[in-house]
């Protein structure tokens, strides 16, 4: 009876398992089914085994989109993680400024992703956009994200940094506020500099939240779709065609569900593998720092 009482809490997981089954497992099995078939129409399909996977892996456009995605996610982490930590360090620790800072930082996170793309599409227009008109007319620098690949990349990066650096800053600030005040008092007594305090007290104590920030920002940036699709549509040319945009072009534009299914599974495995590697590296770094 005691054993039953102890295990009865597992019954609470049943609704979660049902929801996960309908929202994740069943769609995943559907994608797996599509990935091994050549679907030529409703009720008309041919089993082809791993042929779709081989076709996807040989696709040169996929290779280009993959390296483009790696570059984008790498730049996102290199910019947003340090910038978010700097913002968290600069935020007030008490008074009305704390509430104001938290609300101001949270505002970009509340805007829907497709709306973010629309806002920046107008913002950088060279004729009516505040940023676009300022750069073109005031600074005299020709800037057009619809015609130049570099301008498109700069615009997408600015949009991504503006949208998501707040998340890193909020996580880092939570980590900073969780540090007991006695650590700072001891550092002050020892005459530690600001850099020493950050390196030996604040940064190690933030390691957990920064691990979460790195994983969340990597996963989200690697799966980004709505913002660049609305802003550039993957152009000019294919300069901002990331993996997700290329996948949608195959699935919706070409209606090649078999290839899209194989592409989706490869995409999923890449994200899963890289997140595992990131987690293990950050975990080992944390253990090494404690020693």
Structure description:
The protein has 291 residues and is mostly helical. The chain folds into two domains: 1-33, no CATH class; 60-290, Orthogonal Bundle (MetI-like fold). The protein contains 14 helices and two strands, in the order ααββαααααααααααα. It has helices spanning 2-7, 13-35, 51-57, 60-90, 96-110, 113-123, 130-138, 149-177, 181-189, 194-205, 207-222, 226-231, 243-253, 257-290, and strands at residues 37-41, 44-47. The chain has a two-stranded antiparallel ribbon. α8 packs antiparallel against α11 (207-222). It is globular.
Poorly predicted tracts of residues = none
Largest sheet report: 2 strands, antiparallel
Global outline: globular
Order of helices and strands: HHEEHHHHHHHHHHHH
CATH architecture of the largest domain: Orthogonal Bundle
User: What is the count of DSSP helices, taking H or I runs of 4+ residues?
Assistant: 14
Mean pLDDT rating: 86
Oligomer: single chain
Structural class: mainly alpha
Radius of gyration: 24 Å
What is the distance, rounded to the nearest whole angstrom, between the alpha carbons of the first and last residues? Answer: 45 Å
